[in-house]
Amino acid sequence: MARYTIAGVEVNRVSLKNLLLGDKVIYIAYGFLVFALIGMIDVFWDRYFLVSATAFDAGLFPGNREVAAAMKEAVFGSGGEVKREAPWSLYIVNYMYMIYVGSGIVFLVALAELFNITLIKRAAAGFLTLGLGMILAGLFTILVDLNILHLHWMLLSPRYNSGMWLMLPLYIIYIPLIVLEIYLILSHHTNLAKKLALPILLMSLAVEFLEFYVQAKLFDMNSARHLWTTYPLLTFYFMISAFTASAAVMMLYTFLVYRNTDRTKCAAMMDLVKKITLYSVIALGSYEATAYLFIDKKWAGIILFGDFKFYFYAYLLLAVAIPFVLLFKERSSKLAKVIASVSIIIGTYLGRIIFVYGGNAYPMSDRFGIGFEKYGEYEAVKEIVFFMPSWGEAAIVIGSLGIIIFVYRVINLFFSVSMMREP
Amino acid sequence: MNFAMALDYQSCIDCKACEVACKEENGVQLGADKQRIWVTQSEKSIFGEPFVVLHPSQCNHCQDAPCVDVCPTGASYFAIGGIVMSNKETCILCRGCMEACPYDARFVDDTHVAVDKCTFCYDTRIVKGEMTTACQATCPTKVRLFGDLDDEEGELVQLLKHRKFYVLKENEGTVPKLFYLLPEHDMNYAMNSVNEETNIYTWDEFKPLIEKAKTKRSSQWQDIQ
């Protein structure tokens, strides 16, 4: 393949046809992106074009059956994209998962860079691109969640001390730093890459801490989101589970990218990542085993024995038990590692869902300080406990996978980030 | 001016008149639960007999409102008189304010694609010089009394001077301005309305908290006329 050298980086010459229709990976990305597009159309239609009847309409047309039917739909029906009872749902699950896991990958790669772990350093550019893709996928999800037509007010009327603005400067620095690190690796500036690893590592941790502060601490005052704040040391849960998922994603990535090109290095790298994954799984299991000693017993009861028990045990089984059994052996097969990775990825995602939906769904509010009150707003969905996400919401989450694949594939096509490099 | 409301909640009969009036005035779907205004039933039992406490509620218009702090665009703000407002034009629907509110007083208004809440009828009545809210005006049992905390001779402060009261979730430090008047002549009702940790206040005890919070926040009050 013909190459140019620009600023010390070899850039592959890629034809437009190759860029847009080159291989099966791009078709997989397109498949997911179609979901994103359909989801956005669905969400925006519901949000901006759905006509909703109000009390005014009832006053203007008293006794009108159509208005009455429309009002009934508006109050009790499934119309409208955003529901009061599920204000932060699948969007926030996906956003937090992607941001945390993406930052976790960046953190682990930066750590490997600092400690000269050659195996990881060889594939660092690819790992970092994957982490970057996940962070961008998370930002895509949350962007769709916001009222896009009014987003210009973020610039026209900013309130910088609010939680959301806390993250913006961080991302403005963090994302370019990851890009710069990829550049330094590709341009063989190994010493500079190592020096930059420390601030990147610290910023990855800052992202994990600050995201918790911004997202979870907001729940501190809201009793309907009681689950978030009753859980002891929740920030550590978020971080440990994110690192577990990050290691799992890295193991799966290693298998998918290197299984045919460099089998020996692939096996060695998978073994190394396996160890990181195993330690993370043990840490996560230890956390879950001890957390309930400190949690409010009512909430512990709900999670352990109540309506959330199946989801919670599924999370424990997939994120902790199955991977532990598969990875604990001295020599796990590749297949076992892949199954463990997929299991962790699904399990930790389920863990995020439990926290977001659990807080939203369970009608347990002590707003008046005189015991848990009757919370009629959840009656309609009591049977299913979880609020089912709308089709559009689910499609956007599926579409975010397309963002990861697309970002990775395009960068890889031009810069061959998946290539193993001698550090 | 420092607008607030006292609620003689023992008189509430859950007739929904306040809710209908509020929703009609503000174009909210009738029947939509917990949008702008609501009445919550807290159920208990005394010697096996069920006992229901009705708590009419809405935005508490906190003096030290967390919803204002978390808003990234200033869509949540204080209007003159310390009324917490929500601007539909600048709301980006991040829902941070909904999460920050300890009283679950905010909701997404699908017709405007923005977060909405009780405004003490600021835009529909108060700016026009009226001194009553739709909910107060329609309540048949006179549960609600809207007024000005700065007016020592006013009806609201006079009532607070003569009755003991409490506020919701005081430990959140938001200094709310919905004052729940403790039932005077029915100790059973009073005891079932509050828990052991609820602080019961007199006006002289609570006034310094109000003044302190007002001093802290009044520079942020905006004139929307």
From TrEMBL, chain B:
* Membrane-spanning parts: none
One MF term in the entry's GO annotations: 4 iron, 4 sulfur cluster binding
User: Domain 4Fe-4S ferredoxin-type: where?
Assistant: 3-33, 50-81, 82-111
- Supply the InterPro entries for this chain: 4Fe4S_Fe-S-bd, 4Fe4S_Fe_S_CS, ET_IronSulfur_Cluster-Binding
Gene3D superfamilies, from UniProt? Answer: 3.30.70.20
Coiled-coil stretches noted in the UniProt entry, renumbered to this chain? none
Q: Which UniProt keywords apply?
A: 4Fe-4S, Iron, Iron-sulfur, Metal-binding
| Protein's name according to its UniProt entry | 4Fe-4S dicluster domain-containing protein
Report the source organism.
Sulfurovum indicum
